[in-house]
Structures are given as C-alpha cells and as structure tokens.
Amino acid sequence: MNHFELFDLPAAFNIDAAVLQQRYRKLQQTMHPDRFAHGTDREKLLAVQRTAQLNDAYQTLRSPLTRAEYLLAMRGVELAHEQTTVKDPEFLMAQMEWRERIATVKDWSMLESAYKDLQEEMRDLQVALEQFLAAGADQDAALTVRKLKFMHKLHQELERIEDRLD
C-alpha cells in the first residue's frame, strides 16, 4: 500500500492538506500502540510498525517537496540528489548569485529582502513543478525538485543568519 492509498487520497501533487491531517489523526487513533497494550507481542510489534509507517507517510505527503519526490519515485524516477548536478547554466549562475547575496546579509532589512525574493522564486518553481507533474513531464519535474531542494537549503541558511541577528 502506498502513502496515498493509506490515506485514501488520489496519487496527485495537489491534495487537500486539511483532509490529509484529518485522516492522519483518525488513523493515528486506531493504530496507536497503546490500543494494543494488552495484545500479544506480535500485535504490539505490528502496531508499532504500522504507526511508524503512518508517521512516515504523513510526513512525506504533508510537504509539497517530499510529496513530489514520492510521486516521482512511484513513477520510477530516481532523483539521486547527491549524484546528479543541475546542468542548467542559468540556474547555476543564480546559485552563485544567491550564495554571494547571502554572504553579504548583515542586517534585518537585507534579510527580509532576501527572504521575500527567495519565497517568490520558490513559489514560481513550485508552480512549475505542479505543471510538470500534471503533464507527466517527469524529468522536468525531477530537475525542478532538485532546484527546489537548493532553494530550501538557502532558506535554512537565511534562518541561521536570522538566529545570529537575534
């Protein structure tokens, strides 16, 4: 059973987050290991395993990026992030520019501006990802996932700068 089937959702990029959360809570109540405290050792073990699977599935589907990765994996597309580089020269240049920009962030206004611009770029990539997945353009979707992963790392770097500025 795949993650979408577990929550009785269509295997699609666009899902209703509220429905996902509602079904997660309901399944969590029925599968929780405490409900099997008086069961056999096998029942207890199965409850723990099912709960782990449920939590993993929820965490995967809850995030658009990991949901896209999961959809691509279901379609047989191996992302291999560490072994595959993005060969888009324009994106590689943008990465260098982002690195330089982040290195120069010294105050709140620069940080706020970087966050705003990064969010905008991430939104654009997510829209493109949604379109590629809907069209079955799996290789383009995989490339976009790789780009979004980079953007998420930049976001984490901005968060570390924010912590230093506090």
TrEMBL record:
GO BP field: [2Fe-2S] cluster assembly; protein complex oligomerization; protein folding
Keywords, ordered alphabetically: Chaperone
CC annotations in GO: iron-sulfur cluster transfer complex
Gene3D superfamilies: DnaJ domain (1.10.287.110), HscB, C-terminal domain (1.20.1280.20)
GO molecular function: ATPase activator activity; protein-folding chaperone binding
Domain spans labelled J: 2-74
Xref: Pfam families: HSCB_C (PF07743)
Tagged with keyword Cell inner membrane: no
Keyword Cell inner membrane: no
InterPro entries: DnaJ_domain (IPR001623), HscB (IPR004640), HscB_C_sf (IPR036386), HscB_oligo_C (IPR009073), J_dom_sf (IPR036869)
Family note: Belongs to the HscB family.
Subunit description: Interacts with HscA and stimulates its ATPase activity.
Purpose: Co-chaperone involved in the maturation of iron-sulfur cluster-containing proteins. Seems to help targeting proteins to be folded toward HscA.
HAMAP family the UniProt entry points to: HscB
Protein known as: Co-chaperone protein HscB homolog
Organism the protein comes from: Pseudidiomarina indica
Gene that this sequence comes from: hscB
